[in-house]
Amino acid sequence: MDIFLFCAALGLLAVCLCVLALSLIHMQCPPKPDLSRSEGEKTFLDTKTGTSLPFPSLSDPPGIDLSIIVPAYNEEERLPAMLNEALEYLEKRKSATPSFAYEIIVVDDGSRDRTSETALMYTEKYGSDKVRVLTAARNRGKGGAVRLGMFSARGGHLLFADADGATLFSEIEKLEKALNAHEVNGASGDDAAEVIVCGSRAHLQEAALAERTLVRNVLMFGFHFLVWFLCVRGVRDSQCGFKLLTRRAAYRTFCNLHVERWAFDVELLFIAQRLNIPILEVPVSWQEMEGSKLVPFWSWLEMGRDLILISLRHMMGAWKIVPEPKFA
Question: Does residue 321 belong to any structural domain of this protein?
Answer without folding.
Answer: no
